[in-house]
Design the sequence.
DNA sequence: TATTTTACCTGAGGGC
DNA sequence: TGCCCTCAGGTAAAAT
C-alpha cells in the first residue's frame, strides 16, 4: 500500500524520465482513473497532448508533474493499489492499465508512462498550481512555492524541510482523538498510512489509542523522531511490498516488509520484549501493537 | 465546529 | 471445482 516511502520511490524513478519530456499522446482507457478531474477523458487527453513536463514533485502521498510554461500540473494519487510504470514505447498493455502517456524525451527518446490501478482508488488529474501559504517550496522535487489546488489542504510531510515540528505538537495538543487517528489525518501530518503509523507507534512505545492531547512534549518528539526514522529506513529499502500491489516505476518490489516490527505480525513475538503482537479493529482496518511495550495510559 | 463513520472499488484467499 | 464471505485501506463526503 503506497505511503510516503513508496510514493517517493516512484517520484525518484519518474523524475528523470519526465523532466523536459513532451507528451506526444495521451490515452485514457478507464475514466474512473479521473475521479479527481471533472473535465473528463477527452478533455484530459487534449489538454495534455503537446505539452511538456518539467519535473516530478511530491507532498505526502500526492505526486504532481508541473507543466512547462503553465501554472498547472498533472496530479497523481496512487490510492490503494495504483502504480506508475515506465515502459518502452509501444509496450503491450499492463494489467489494470487505466491511462497511458507517451513521451518524447530529449535524451531518453520515446517511452511511456502507464498508470495502472486495480482497485481504482487512485487517480490522475490536471490541476492549477496555487501559492503555498508559507511561501516555502510546495514539496519535494519542486523548489517553487506552489502546490496543486487539490493538495493545498494536505499538511507537509515529516521529511519535508519546511515541516513545522512546533505546529505539529500544538495540533496534537488540540486533538481529542487517539494518536493513531491523528497520524492518519493528512491535514495534520501527511505521508503516514496504516503501516507506518503502526510501525512508528511501536518504535516510540505509544499505544495507538492514547489520546493525542495527553502526550507529553517529550513523547511527541520521540514519536516524530521515530516516524522520520521509519520512513527513511523504508525509503532506503525501496518501500514496503506485500504482493504485486506496490512496485517502483520498473515494476520491482521493495524490501521493507522484512523490516516490519508490528504491522501484519499478529500473534508473533514483539522483537523488543517477546510478547505476542496484538491486532485490534480500528476504523474498518487494523492496528498492530505490543500490549506490553505500548501500554495504554 | 470537531469528530466519527461511511462509500468508493476489486482481486486474493479461506471455508465449505 | 466453485460459490460465498472477508479483507486490504486512502480520501472525501456524509453523518453525528
Sequence:
Amino acid at each position: 500500500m503506497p505511503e510516503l516511502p513508496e510514493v517517493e520511490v516512484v517520484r525518484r524513478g519518474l523524475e528523470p524520465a519526465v523532466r523536459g519530456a513532451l507528451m506526444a499522446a495521451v490515452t485514457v482507457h478507464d475514466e474512473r482513473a479521473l475521479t479527481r478531474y471533472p473535465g473528463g477523458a477527452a478533455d484530459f487527453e487534449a489538454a495534455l497532448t503537446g505539452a511538456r513536463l518539467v519535473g516530478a514533485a511530491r507532498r505526502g502521498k500526492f505526486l504532481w508533474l508541473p507543466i512547462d510554461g503553465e501554472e498547472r500540473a498533472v496530479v497523481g494519487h496512487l490510492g490503494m493499489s495504483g502504480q506508475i510504470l515506465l515502459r518502452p514505447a509501444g509496450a503491450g498493455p499492463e494489467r489494470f492499465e487505466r491511462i497511458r502517456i507517451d513521451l518524447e524525451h530529449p535524451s531518453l527518446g520515446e517511452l511511456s508512462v502507464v498508470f495502472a490501478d486495480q482497485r481504482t482508488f487512485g487517480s490522475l488529474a490536471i490541476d492549477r498550481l496555487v501559492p503555498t501559504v508559507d511561501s516555502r517550496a510546495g514539496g519535494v522535487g519542486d523548489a517553487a512555492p506552489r502546490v496543486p489546488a487539490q493538495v493545498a489542504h494536505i499538511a507537509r510531510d515529516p521529511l519535508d524541510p519546511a515541516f513545522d515540528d512546533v505546529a505539529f505538537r500544538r495540533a496534537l495538543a488540540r486533538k481529542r482523538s487517539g494518536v493513531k487517528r491523528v497520524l492518519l489525518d493528512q491535514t495534520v501530518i501527511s505521508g503516514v498510512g496504516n503501516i507506518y503509523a503502526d510501525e512508528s507507534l511501536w518504535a516510540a512505545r505509544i499505544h495507538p489509542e492514547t489520546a493525542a492531547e495527553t502526550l507529553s512534549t517529550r513523547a511527541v518528539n520521540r514519536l516524530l523522531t521515530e516516524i522520520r526514522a521509519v520512513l527513511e529506513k523504508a525509503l532506503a529499502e525501496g518501500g514496503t511490498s506485500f504482493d504485486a500491489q506496490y512496485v517502483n516505476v520498473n515494476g520491482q518490489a521493495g524490501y521493507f516488509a522484512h523490516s516490519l516490527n508490528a504491522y501484519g505480525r499478529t500473534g508473533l513475538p514483539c522483537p523488543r520484549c517477546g510478547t505476542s503482537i496484538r491486532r485490534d479493529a480500528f476504523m474498518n482496518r487494523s492496528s498492530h501493537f505490543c500490549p506490553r511495550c505500548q501500554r495504554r495510559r
